[in-house]
Design goal:
The complex is a heterotrimer of chains A (about 325), B (about 240) and C (about 290). By secondary structure, chain B is of the alpha/beta class. Chain B folds into 2 domains: about 1-80 and about 160-240, P-loop containing nucleotide triphosphate hydrolases (Rossmann fold, 3-Layer(aba) Sandwich), CATH 3.40.50; about 90-155. Chain B is built from 9 helices and 10 strands. A 6-stranded mixed β-sheet of chain B has the order 6-7-8-3-9-10, with helices on both faces. The longest helix of chain B has 18 residues, at about 170-190. Chain B starts with a strand and ends in a 5-residue tail after the last helix. In chain C, a hairpin with a 2-residue loop joins strand 1 and strand 2. Chain C is mostly helical. Chain C has helices at about 1-30, 40-55, 60-85, 90-115, 140-160, 165-175, 175-180, 185-210, 215-230, 235-255, 265-275, and strands at about 130, 135-140. Classes of the chains: A mainly alpha (about 325), B alpha/beta (about 240), C mainly alpha (about 290).
Chain lengths: ~325, ~240, ~290
């Protein structure tokens, strides 16, 4: 199958990459894989279950802070700290989802609800002294330390972790789509009334989507914490970050499996390319990269709202895999 | 003697003070085909919605095979054994025909593979076998109606609720669908309750008819009796309907 | 004790300007049924315009208000006519994505052009106060609130007593009916969007008297406008002003009683409560 061959080829390339490319391209690739991962996680909620969340930074932030705090206070390594981080984020997500469902908050109003919770949490964390408040939270870094379970080590370590995460998210999403739950999600996305009449428990399906999405997203936050070693509420819970998360899947293709990956590649390369070009001419233009993102989003929405991947897949004659 | 599979007792529903359904009672025997006719706005679809759990009745009760299902959610009613179609068809537009019906089939199947097989079989039965991979959005209206029936059928219902499935079909298509439904009733004992305006289908399928008007049941009986009932002729049929 | 009155009064005045900004959002949503996600960005654009004019011509922003409102009207009209209109029938999330794109472009465009530093407009009376009975009020806020009131009143009169205003209200209340009687809905939509943006322009001009212009303010203002509109009631003009005042006062009190950085916490908490319990807001109609 063509699709499988291409995917495996891409994966092989990515596995070999560190041996071929330098430090800066590697860092870019890590960014691409990180946003591909977050995009896939967000897409589960929006693309598959049809719930628009504009406050997904909440789960990134919760994942990051919980895991980071557990590490700095108790020495709990990242891979273990990720578990409570994911649990807390999932509970938050389920809470928001349940509230929305219970009070019949839909569409744009639900999106606003997610924003409100994210912002609320951001301001809250600005005032939690224990995690540094608005001055940020910093992780201890010891040079030369290499420890997989604690996620301490050189960039290459993080590269492979990011690659594994992105690949795993992709496979998990693909597997889920072929289960009973996956069909339920698609049905609920297309037409909740019709889905219910066909025996689908709409509430449960939506809650499941939220749980999976928020759990996965929070693990991305854990990665963020241990890779960047610092976090500020202003940055990690912000609306800007929530928007960053959703750009790749929207541009790549809502509701598709490969869309977020493609979108992440395209956007990150566009962004880094723009910044690089400006630096070449000695210009430091804050905001230029984002303007390009905005234009890209505008073009996609106007010309090809289903996203780049469906268009590309047609060109390459790949089936309806993702 | 057929026992009542569905018993509707005194259901009522008002919308903003307007009584859409007023104290309607009837029952459908197991293996029976009952048609519900009446002018537009008579409350027929609202009755369906009350039975199928799309909205709870203000008063009254609904029993399926002796078990109360009043006020249950739509998906719970489906699991209990009622499959329904919508008057304005609601396909899962972005999904393929097969996936559409698979969603329904999952209601009764143990796993996805089994559901898909069952979905294929149902689609064959409804003459959609060659279109299973097409997106539902690409289907013509008659095919969408058949898809709607297929999806409801795939849920493995004891009772099938059909809401004006014949509307918009050409006479040959209508006859074909009647043939399929009659066959299901005969072979598998599928109980059917249908809302219809197309009298051609009603007269061929229905063993009994009830007539609604202004939210109330005004007549009930065999097709021959009902089409001669003066009240029915007055309100709905007119002498030339047949 | 009197300091509370001062704070509340100050909050009321600020809130009126918030209300004016939210009015723009409400008008657009009430008629065109599009959620203008770029609302804050356009407000900040207006703030920058006022700053530029105040800097270049040494003119009090309040005097430049008509000009900036007119400019925003044109922008809004064009936005609706050329970008938004083809999206009217399309799924809600596509409309949202469109305006999100616009908001990203505007916000970062402003960042590119003006840089991240705060831009301040200094007026002669910036530090003056007016005594109104027992209250001590900032002159700036009094002027801004007064202007906001005048504009809101003007808007009300427009909708109530002019043909155009009635036509727009008809579109909002009964689109099909409006089309049936032959109203040019597309033109009315564009006019309404323009009008909403004009209000945004006016409120931005007033807002720059009270706050410095920075790009990051845009996101906060968009959210603020939504909070006000939802609490006050989508589609209700009085609701937008009432909501604005409510938020203005609660922010002022929270900033004083708790901590300035916590003042938005209360607003978001209120938004959550309203979304859950009474999404039609205090004065809105149930959709």
């Amino acid at each position: 199958m063509k699709a499988r061959a291409l995917l495996l080829g891409l994966f092989a390339l990515l596995v070999a990459a560190p041996a071929i490319i330098g430090a800066y391209p590697l860092a870019v690739l890590i960014l691409i894989l990180h946003y591909a991962y977050l995009g896939i996680a967000w897409n589960v909620m929006m693309g598959f279950a049809g719930l628009l969340s504009l406050g997904h930074a909440l789960y990134v932030g919760l994942g990051a802070y919980v895991a980071a705090a557990l590490y700095t206070s108790f020495g709990l390594p990242a891979l273990l700290g990720a578990i409570p981080a994911a649990v807390i984020a999932t509970l938050a997500g389920l809470g928001i989802g349940a509230l929305g469902f219970r009070f019949r908050v839909h569409g744009v109003y639900f999106a606003l609800l997610t924003i409100a919770f994210a912002e609320f949490t951001r301001i809250l964390f600005d005032h939690i002294g224990w995690t540094g408040g608005s001055s940020g939270f910093f992780m201890p870094v010891e040079h030369g330390q290499v420890h997989l379970i604690a996620l301490r080590g050189p960039p290459v370590l993080f590269y492979y972790v990011a690659l594994v995460m992105a690949a795993a998210a992709f496979l998990i999403a693909r597997m889920l789509m072929r289960t009973r739950l996956g069909y339920a999600w698609l049905a609920v996305r297309e037409d909740p009334d019709s889905a219910a009449a066909s025996g689908v428990d709409v509430f449960r399906a939506r809650m499941a989507a939220i749980a999976v999405s928020s759990a996965l997203t929070s693990l991305g936050g854990v990665f963020y914490a241990f890779y960047y070693n610092n976090m500020y509420p202003e940055q990690i819970f912000s609306m800007a970050r929530s928007i960053e998360i959703i750009l790749a899947p929207i541009i790549g293709g809502l509701g598709t499996l490969f869309g977020p990956v493609l979108g992440s590649f395209v956007l990150t390369i566009l962004g880094e390319g723009t910044t690089g070009l400006l630096e070449h001419f000695g210009l430091a233009a804050p905001g230029a990269k984002q303007v390009i993102y905005g234009v890209a989003l505008l073009v996609i929405v106007m010309v090809q709202p289903a996203g780049l991947w469906p268009w590309l897949a047609k060109r390459l004659r790949i089936g309806r895999d993702g | 003697m057929a026992e009542a599979l569905l018993t509707v007792s005194g259901i009522s529903k008002s919308f903003r003070g307007l009584k859409a359904v007023n104290d309607v009672s009837f029952s459908v025997g197991e293996g029976e085909i009952l048609a519900m006719i009446g002018p537009n706005g008579a409350g027929k679809t609202t009755c369906f919605n009350l039975i199928a759990g799309a909205m709870p009745p203000d008063a009254g009760a609904v029993h399926l095979a002796g078990q109360p299902i009043t006020g249950l959610r739509a998906d719970q009613v489906c699991r209990a054994g009622i499959g329904r179609t919508f008057q304005l068809v609601k396909p899962f537009a972005g999904l393929s025909v097969l996936d559409n019906v698979t969603v329904g089939a999952l209601n009764a199947a143990r796993h996805v593979g089994e559901a898909k097989e069952h979905a294929r079989a149902v689609l064959e039965l409804l003459d959609l076998g060659r279109k299973i991979d097409e997106p539902a959005s690409a289907l013509t209206l008659p095919d969408r109606k058949r898809l709607e029936v297929a999806r409801a059928l795939a849920t493995g219902p004891k009772l099938l609720l059909l809401d004006e499935v014949m509307a918009g079909l050409r006479p040959t298509e209508c006859d074909r669908l009647v043939e399929i439904l009659a066959g299901l009733n005969r072979r598998d004992g599928l109980t059917i309750l249908l809302i219809e305006h197309v009298m051609r289908a009603v007269m061929k399928l229905a063993q009994r008819i009830i007539v609604l008007h202004h939210g109330e049941k005004i007549a009930e009986g065999t097709p021959e009796a009902v089409v001669r009932d003066p009240a029915v002729l007055d309100s709905y049929l007119g002498e030339e309907a047949l | 004790m009197t300091v509370y009155f001062d704070i509340i009064a100050s909050g009321v005045l600020t809130g009126l300007v918030y209300g004016l900004m939210a009015l723009g959002l409400s008008v657009i949503f009430g008629v065109v049924r599009v959620v203008n996600f770029a609302h804050g960005e356009l407000t900040v654009a207006a703030m920058y315009m006022a700053w530029v004019m105040a800097g270049s011509f040494a003119v009090d922003p309040i005097l430049t208000l008509p000009l900036i409102a007119a400019a925003l009207f044109v922008i809004g009209y064009a936005l609706q006519r050329h970008l938004v209109e083809p999206f009217i029938g399309r799924p809600e999330h596509e409309q949202f994505m469109l305006l999100l794109a616009v908001s990203i472009i505007v916000l970062n465009g402003l960042l590119l052009v003006f840089g991240p530093d705060a831009r301040h407009v200094a007026v002669d009376y910036a530090y003056d106060s007016i005594e109104l009975g027992p209250l001590l009020l900032d002159t700036v806020r009094v002027y801004a609130a007064a202007a906001a009131n005048v504009l809101a009143l003007g808007l009300y009169l427009f909708f109530r007593f002019t043909d155009l205003g009635t036509a727009i209200r008809a579109c909002a209340d009964n689109l099909l009916g409006a089309q049936v009687v032959g109203l040019d809905v597309r033109r009315l939509y564009a006019l309404t969007f323009g009008l909403g943006c004009a209000l945004v322009g006016a409120s931005g001009t007033l807002m720059v008297l009270m706050r410095d212009a920075t790009p990051i303010l845009a996101v906060q203002l968009t959210l603020l406008a939504f909070i006000v509109v939802i609490i006050g009631g989508l589609g209700s003009m009085a609701g937008a002003l009432v909501g604005g005042v409510l938020i203005g006062v609660s922010e002022a009190l929270a900033g004083f009683l708790l901590m300035p950085s916590l003042k938005s916490l209360f607003s978001y908490g209120l938004l959550i409560l309203v979304l859950l319990l009474r999404p039609e807001g205090l004065m809105g109609r149930r959709a």
